[in-house]
Amino acid sequence: MPVDRMHQTLAAELEDLGAKGSLKGAEAVVTEVVPATGDRGPRVKLAGAGDKLFLRMNSNNYLGMSLRREVIEAEEAASRAFGAGPGAVRFISGTFQPHVELERRLAEFHGREACMIFSSAYATTLGVLSPLLSKETAVVSDDLNHNCIINAIRLARPAAKRIYKHLDLEQLDQCLEEVAAESRRAIVVTDGIFSMRGDHAPLPEILEIVRKYDGAFEENALLMVDDSHGVGAFGKTGRGVEEYTGCDPVDVLVATLGKALGVNGGYVAASRQIVDYLREKAPMYIYSNPITPAEAAAALRALEILDSEVGIGLLDHLRAMTVRFEAGLERLGLETIPGEHPVVPLMVRDTERTSGLVRHLRDQGILATGLNFPVVPKGDEEIRFQISADHTEADIDETLAALEAFQG
Fold first, then answer.
1. What amino acid positions are annotated as catalytic residues?
2. 90, 133, 43: which is closest to 287 by C-alpha?
């Protein structure tokens, strides 16, 4: 066949990924979601596993919004009113009232002048950084930032790039000093929550350093934060790392509709001037269909729930379940990285043992994510657990009992 030689090359690359332990392999396919019953939270069925029920301890659905009746009903009503899809990109005829209302409400929620929605948070980061990183812009990035930030910087080809060691603010300061003489603009970019570890960026201190060097750049020094794992899951009212750390609003805030809000899509909140510019220059926004009107309506309903007493209750329960799980790990003598975020890493620090423990958990009906070298550095192998407001005390205790029973 015409592409047989290329197939050989691709097969060899896949084989190499398998040998390195970074091949993701076949995806688990959810065939049914079983609602919560009694003292147990929701479960799922998987293709090939018959009627066996699985507890998801690896979902970004931090507040359980994707299964809330009000959110589902909002999406269904909008589908009936506007159709299943937008049918065009935003600047042609793909902008619907739910898009506009959601952007207005998100800007208000974050105390910003404006907001714009993208098809995903990944696309948001690519779409925002690419036009803002001009050929005379320096970018400074934490070395544990998400893949979307790494790729956005690669694509943008800024004038200068500096990577500082994870949360090393002294090195961040040095990086800004180094690039000040060769750039008209600087953008410091960091995750709010680092998704592999659950730790957070000290935003007030980072913002202070950025402001310290602002005068050294003709077009300012800016701070951009991707808080996709923070918004809706962190802070007393779910406003993320800014709220948790008491930080003043950063210059550019990226977040997602697909984690704590339980739907799909991403967004950026910033000044009106920045957002107006991005609407004209961000390729991932201009040339790609938006989320559906129904998804926008569902996200709007989820945001309304979050920004209410019901949302406060969900956040309180989420924190309580996180504390219960972390305390259980400590009781079992297992290592974690302490923190209040619902990403709770179990530091196994051995590839074979990590893989074995993930298999054991699955056999016990529990889904968790193993992270092995080279996805994480050798010696940092871990299992990432993600707590949800859908989880009950019984769910947490079931997971801890399965960990205690592991003999590998």
1. 195, 229, 259
2. 90
Find, among 141, 387, 90, the residue nearest to 265 by Cα.
Answer: 90
Q: Is residue 6 part of a domain?
A: no
- What integer pLDDT is reported at residue 18 of this predicted model? 83
pLDDT at 408: 66
Strand 343-347 versus strand 382-386 pairing type? antiparallel
User: What CATH number corresponds to the domain at position 125?
Assistant: 3.40.640.10
379 conformational bin, left if phi > 0, alpha if psi -120 to 50, beta if neither? left
Q: What integer pLDDT is reported at residue 378 of this predicted model?
A: 84
Question: pLDDT value at position 376?
Answer: 81
pTM over 0.85: yes
Strands (E), 300-355: 343-347
Strand extents, DSSP E, 195-265: 221-226, 252-256
pLDDT of residue 23: 80
Q: Are 278 and 116 in contact (CB under 8 A)?
A: yes
Single out the residue in 258, 289, 306 at which a domain terminates: 306
In a domain, 19, yes or no: no
Name residues of the chain where pLDDT drops below 50: none
Same domain, 274 and 327: no
> 124 and 221 share a domain?
yes
d(CA 150, CA 154): 6
89: three-class secondary structure by DSSP: coil
pLDDT at 1: 63
Enumerate the β-bridge partners of residue 231.
239
CA dist 312 and 111 (Å) reads: 19
Residues of the domain holding 159: 69-306
> 283 and 345: one domain?
no
Residues 174 and 221 in one domain: yes
Do residues 141 and 214 both lie within one domain?
Answer: yes
172 and 294 share one domain: yes
pLDDT of 374: 76
- Is 392 strand, coil or helix? coil
* pLDDT tens for each residue of 165-185: 999 999 999 999 999 988 999
Contacts of 109 (CB under 8 A, 6+ apart): 239, 303, 307
**Neighbour tally for 27: CB within 10 Å:** 7
Distance CA(221)–CA(100), nearest Å, equals 30
Residues 366 and 358: their CA atoms lie apart, in Å, by 9
**Average pLDDT for the chain:** 95
Q: Is the same domain home to 116 and 204?
A: yes
